Amino acid sequence: MDRRTILRTAILGTGTATFAGALWQQALARQRWQEQLADPDRQGQLADPDRQGQPAGPAQPGPSPYGDLLAADANGIQLPISFTSRVIGRSGQRVAGTSYIWHWAPDGGACFPAGDGWIYVSNSEIPLAGGASAVRFRADGSIASAYRILGGTNVNCAGGATPWGTWLSCEEVPLGRVFETWPDGSRPAEERTRLGRFKHEAAACDPQRRVVYLTEDESDGCFYRFIPDTWGDLRTGKVQVLCAPADQTAGPVTWQDVPDRDGFPVATRSQVAAAKHFDGGEGCWYDRDICWFTTKGDNRVWAYDAVGQRLDLAYDDSLVPADAAPLTGVDNIIGTTGGDLYVAEDGGNMEINVITPAGVVAPFLRLLGHSSSEITGPAFSPDGSRLYFSSQRGTSGSSAGSGGITYEVTGPFRRGPLPAPPPAR
Predict the structure, then answer these.
(1) Does residue 290 fall inside a structural domain?
(2) Buried b (16+ CB within 10 A) or exposed e, 69-78
(3) Pick from 352, 381, 370, 362: which is nearest to 283 by CA?
(4) Once rounded to an integer, what is the mean pLDDT over residues 111-130?
(5) Cα 334 to Cα 386: distance, rounded to the nearest angstrom
(6) Residue 415 lies in a domain
């Protein structure tokens, strides 16, 4: 039996409750229920979501909420109707309207509010010089400036935004570090080695439990969380690793402390016998009690329910009809206020796919002529109307990343209510 057949039998045959859409719906219902408890006029109107029925299976291919992709535009991007694209930066060239040279191998990114505009930050996944850059936009979307926010680091791959407005830039090397950076360039970056020394990929902050989730890009990597002593201050705290049976794809999990977060001489992933190992941890995104993370080795999107402390599969290319998986090369992930997830491909056919709260997965965009590249750094502007991402090696496919291109896509994205501003520290 091949992997697809084995997994379909093991997961679907046991009736495991792992439907992505239901996880979203449960999280949204839980949020509404908590709001109701705080409002005497609404008490009794909604049922406790944690007492409702269980979900039913990972996301499946279906029609995109945006319709079919059209012919490629002038930038070589296939988009749905009413969407347009533009190039923001090219590696080794000046960002339009500035004197700043855009970095090579653009990777993980995020957007931050800035006055009446916003800032997009992007890592550079090159050895030794790595670091991160930023582009500042005016309210009308025009580029105001571009500049460096981190330098002299090593293979900065992904990372994550914090609720207090900083960017965590992660080194994807053995004994890699995390650096906290300030998108507006107002402060020098600071090393945050208490978050552990390992082959870091992405980070996602959970403000309810006051932890930072972390992925590890190893074929036997782990899923971690950092619990700071004081929320908003990442200088001290403890690192824990998710623990579960090796073959478990759905069910309860526990957490155990990592004895030596510095990972030398014993790697962090090898210190706790009960730790669950994942095949190439990649993107990570937290929203409404669920932390979504991806693993590239098995093309999966996982969902960690922080309230129920359980793990589920939101997507697995082995659990869709044979040869019909729209999403392969699973990599970076980002979500919207409306509950949609956007997952970028490293390889595959160079798409960003959308996974809807109804559990439908479908292509949102496709890059043509970039077959030796990967899509990196997807991030939405604060109002949700613009999507930024990069082709790390562009059409040239240069292994050094000298052909990297960063794009912006504008259009009628599905959006929910905008989140409240983050509290001051």
Answers:
(1) yes
(2) beebeebbbb
(3) 352
(4) 96
(5) 13
(6) no
